[in-house]
Amino acid sequence: MVLAVREGALDPDLLVTLADLIGKGAVAPADRPLVVKTCGMGWQGLAVAVAAHRRKGGTPGRWG
Predict the structure, then answer these.
(1) Quick one: pLDDT band at residue 41, thresholds 50, 70, 90?
(2) How far apart are CA 39 and CA 42, in angstroms?
């Protein structure tokens, strides 16, 4: 992400944290690609995503 911002390919003002998506009600725009930057192993990111989805009242397997 640092390189993309530095090269002008990514506007840092458009970045939204996972915490904002979960807690502050931010909405991920549907009119452009969604890029997720995580740290750790893939299964860890999936576990966090499922927990966040459940916290919002969703059911795993029904993301839409």
Answers:
(1) confident
(2) 9
